Protein 1
Amino acid sequence: MIWWFWLGPLGGCVQIPLSILRMYAMLNPYGVKVRYPQDMAVGIQDARAALEYSQEIKRWADALIGV
C-alpha cells in the first residue's frame, strides 16, 4: 500500500510506502523522549531498531530526491 501526501508550498505530491510510515510511527515517540532526557530509558534492542529504521527512511528519502 502507498500513501500520497501533498507537499504544500513545495508543490506536487510524494508517494510514501506504508513500510516507511510504519517506521516513522515507531520513531516518532523518540522525538518527545529527547526533549525530556530524564524520562529517556531506551534498551539496546530499541536503540538498534531505531537506528535501523532511521537509516532506512534516510535511504528512501535520498532515493526520492536523487542523492
Note: The longest helix spans residues 44-65.
Protein 2
Amino acid sequence: MQAWQEALVENFKVVSRTVEGRVRVSVVSYDAASAEDERVRLEAAGAVVRIVPVPMGASVPEAVLEELRTGVSEAA
C-alpha cells in the first residue's frame, strides 16, 4: 500500500473489559462501521468497550489499556 493510501484508511482496534474483568484487544484492525458492530456485540454481552483509532500496524496506547484495567481515566 502506498503512503497516500495509508493516510486515507482509518484503522480501529476494539478494546474491551469482560464482565469477568479481563481486558481484551482485537487482534485485527477494523474499519469504523465494523468496529461499531463489534462494540454493539460486546456491549450486549456486558463488556465495557472502547474503539481506538490507531495508525496501521500500531498498538493501542497503554493509557487506554490502563483505563480499562482500573476503570479510571487518566483525564480524571
Note: Residues 3 and 70 are 37 Å apart (CA to CA).
Protein 3
Amino acid sequence: MQYITGKNISTLLLLLVLTGMWLTACTNDNDDVVQGAGNPLQVADVTRSGESVFTGAADYSPLRLLLYDETEEEVKNGLFVYTEGGWRSGINVTNGTDYRIYGFAPSTASNSFSIGAIFPTSATLLINNLAVITTNDVCVVTGVQQVSEKTDTKDIVRGQFAFTGREKDHNFVNLQLDHLYAAMQFTFKVTPTYNDLRTIKVKNMVLKTASKTSAYHTLGNVVAVLSDNSADPLNTTWTFYPTTTALSLPIYQSETPLELTETDSEAFGQVCYVPHATVLSELVLETTYDIYDKQGNLIRPDQTATNQLTDVLGGNGRGQLVTLHLTVKPTYLYVLSDPDLDNPTMEIDN
C-alpha cells in the first residue's frame, strides 16, 4: 500500500483494482501510395486478435504493408486505405511470383519503418518513433491467408506470411493483426459512507509521463521478429530514448463533470501504453475534481490528485486491456469531521 499526497491541500482517495481481458484497436490515416508493375493486391478482410474494445471502425485503420519479393529480393511498400466498398491501394504483384507480406496499422503511428533481416522462416520488422502512450492501438500483421475472392472468409493461420501472385482480380488476402501495446480504461465510484456526506465531480483526467530527472522516455523503437508456423509468431524488443519534454494525453474532459455514485461508472478513457518497465516507471494519472456538500455548495474547486501507475500496471502484457476501478473513500472512517471529508488522501491498491 502506498500513500501519495496530491498537488493541492486536499486530494482524492482512489482504490485501483485490476481486471484483465483482451483488447482491440484504434484508427488514423495516411495518404501516400507506392505503385508497382503487375496486378493489384487487394485486402479482403482484416481481423485483430482478441475481443473488440475500442468503439468505431476498429478494423478499418489504414494499413502499411511491406511485400518482400522472394525472386527480386526487394521490398514493395504500399498503403491500404479503407473506403466504401473495400480496401484501396496501388501496390501490384506479379503472377507466379512468391512474396512474403508484413506490415502494421495504423499507418500514421510511425513514418519510420523497414524490413530488417529476412530468413526462410522469419523476418524482422522495425518500427521507430512510436509514442509510449497513445489512443492508437498499434498492431502488426501476424497472419496472411491468400484467397481468390473478395468474399472468401477463410480462416487465417497465425504465423503464415507467404503469398503467390495470381491473375488479375484473384489477388486477395485476409490479414490477422496482433497488438504491440497493452491498454487501460477506468471506472469510478464512491463509498456509501462518503456519498452520504459529500459529492465528488470529476472534471478531467490526464495520463502523463513523469520523471525524477529532466529526461522523459516518450518515444520508442520496436523490433518485431515474425516467425512462420508458430503458435506465437510475434516477439518484440523495445528500446527507448530520452526527450526533454513530457508526454501528456487527455483521457477525460467534459463541460458536464462526472458525478460519482455508489456503483461503478461505465468503463471509459481507453488508452494504449507500452507494457515495459521503462514506461511504467514514469506513468502518472492526474485527476481534477470538485468537492460539494450535500446541499450542492461547492466547497473545494479544481482539486488535483496524482496516482503513480507503476505497480497497478506492472503485471500486464501486450494485447491486454486492464480496467482500473477507482473508489473514493474518506480519510478516516470513524471521525468524519469536515476537515477529514474535505482533505482525503490517495491510496493505490492492486
Note: Residues 185 and 270 are 4 Å apart (CA to CA).
